[in-house]
Amino acid sequence: MAFRPPTAADLQELGKQLDFHLNDEYAELLASHMGAFAESCALLDNEPDEIPTIKYADRSHYFPDAAENEYGAWYVKSDINGAATGPLAGRSVAIKDNIFVAGIPMMDGASVLEGFIPDFDATVVTRLLDAGANVLGKAVCEYFCVSSANFTGSGYPVDNPRKRGYSTGGSSSGSGALVAAGEVDIALGCDQAGSVRIPSSWCGIYGMKPTHGLLPYTGIMGMEATIDHVGPMTANVADNALALEIMAGYDDMDGRQQRLEVREYTQALGKDVADMKIGVVQEGFGMPYSAPDVDECVRAGAAKYAELGATVEPISIPIHPRGIAVWSGIVSDGLWETLRFNGTPTNITTVASPSLWQAADGWLKRMEEMPHNVRAMMLFGRYLERYNGYYYGKAKNMMRKLRAAYDGELATYDLLLMPTTSGKPLTNIASLAEASVDEVMQHTLNAIFNTCQFDATGHPAMSIPCGERDGLPIGLMLVGKHFDEPTIYRAAHAFEQSIDWRGL
Mean pLDDT lowest for which of 140-154, 189-203, 304-318, 464-478? Predict the structure, then answer.
């Protein structure tokens, strides 16, 4: 695009909007002194963008038909082979459709982005390819990832392979289904309120939301930089630890990464839990929309850890339910600001995609296309502009108190334990167009009550399957100290090796 410097008339109009009067002479004077800034914008117009190069350029894609997309989980299929050798040689990967894969269409579940083609690979995608992975395509996600359900995205509804006709959870809905169905070994999800852990819980797979910043977020369309996380979703703990090991580490293009502690996560596998202390967070049970059989199943999982030799004790973290307000205060302002800049995150060092900016430009005038929950988030974010970041700041201040509450218990206990989701998978909504506002809002927000807090505080948290009721999987969530993913993997692997969750 070409920048047009502001005229005196432009400044006078802006002044009216701000209740500030500029007479003709003063407006002309200010406009003349803006020349240097205007010249900078003109210079930027003519400068090429510094974006990452594509290492594995031989790639193709196509949109699968219904016969090849049984669960509605693929947005687009691809064939991208990475390095000839490596720890992931011969392993298949699906990439959530808010993560850049160069030359492969991406929608972020949103009709307003249809036709967008990313211009570079996300860093995590490059690292998987460097390890020998084969990227089989993009997995459906929810509209702008603003849903814990499975029916607002481009391929709605994504069906649950564990029990047809039921929700996978979201927003990484396609990723959860493809791993559960055995169509891929590893899928990437992104988690700002629980979007890796919720579909992992409802699809009966393993999903890790790592410590904030451990995995670079370069080349991923996010919501708000301080709550953006990307993580692996797998059918077993070993694959999950391996994927994290491959993707973790510093990326000089991502300003989210601070004081990283990168470990060999696969070394945590195969160890017992006899010396571990696990705190069962009582406030994580009996939450809104809790199902008694979910609470009972997760408590049985906690008892299993005691059988394995761990010290398992009930603990209280009274602020835990109020942590939802912390997350809400951050995301309400943060998501609006991110989308207001057409998906370009602000206040951090990162790579901006010119193609994404162009694809997203004008999205605000297409709200009629959006599901009710997205409209609500957009309108609320716009409304909060009148408070000039006050509630965002309050949430950030309260976040430190919330983080300290978890850290206080983690000084005594190795891990915290609670249900991942308070309820079981819901039956699919047949038609988004015919669903009521109440139905859409309840389905898209009812699963985040135990998960969103740890996006705000950045603690690592993993969902592991601990049983099923009525043929529907139930997830148990383990939360650890910052950068202590090895302890989570150690406990998750010990649990996995000791039971067959499908019979519990």
Answer: 140-154
Write down the catalytic residue from 77, 96, 138, 163. Answer: 96
Query: Which amino acid type is present at position 18?
Result: L
Which residues have CB under 8 Å from 497's CB, separation 6+?
A: none
Q: Give residue for tokens 């302002």.
A: 333
40 upstream amide cis, omega within 30 of 0? no
Residue pair 138/76 in contact by the 8 Å Cβ criterion: yes
Is residue 68 classed as helix, strand or coil in its secondary structure?
Answer: helix
Is 332 one of the annotated active-site residues of the chain? no
413 vs 5: CA distance, rounded Å: 59
Residue 460's CB: how many other CB atoms inside 10 A? 27
DSSP H or E stretch at residue 62: strand 59-62
**pLDDT for 434:** 83
pLDDT tier at 50 (50, 70, 90 boundaries)? Answer: confident
Among 78, 171, 173, 463, which one carries the catalytic annotation?
A: 171
Token pair 């998987």: residue: 128
316 counts as catalytic: no
| Cα–Cα distance list, 65 to 76, 101, 209 (Å) | 10, 21, 32
Active site residue 173: no
Chain segment 66-95, per-residue pLDDT in tens = 999 999 999 999 999 999 999 999 999 999
Listed in sequence order, the residues at least 6 apart from 65 whose beta carbon sits closer than 8 Å to its beta carbon are none
Q: Which residues contact 427 (CB under 8 A, 6 or more apart)?
A: 165, 166, 167
Which helix (H) or strand (E) is 476 found in, with range? Answer: strand 472-479
Phi, psi of 296 (to 5 degrees): -65, -40
Q: How many CA atoms lie within 13 A of 251 on its CB side?
A: 24
How far is the CA of 332 from the CAs of 193, 195, 404, 458, 480, in angstroms? Answer: 12, 17, 23, 18, 26
Catalytic residue among 154, 167, 175, 195: 195
**pLDDT tens digits, 400-438:** 999 999 999 999 999 999 999 999 999 999 888 888 999
- Are the beta carbons of 209 and 229 closer than 8 angstroms? yes
* ω into 157 cis (within 30 of 0): yes
Tokens matching residue 301: 């999982």
- In DSSP notation, 370-428 reads S-HHHHHHHHHHHHGGGGTTHHHHHHHHHHHHHHHHHHHHHTT-SEEEEESSSSPPPBP
Give which of 206, 186, 207 is closest to 195, Cα–Cα.
Answer: 207
Q: What is the mean pLDDT of residues 480-497?
A: 98
Amino acid 35: pLDDT: 83
Contact call for residues 399 and 330 (beta carbons, < 8 A): yes
Q: Whose structure tokens read 């720890």?
A: 87
CA distance 139 to 370: 20
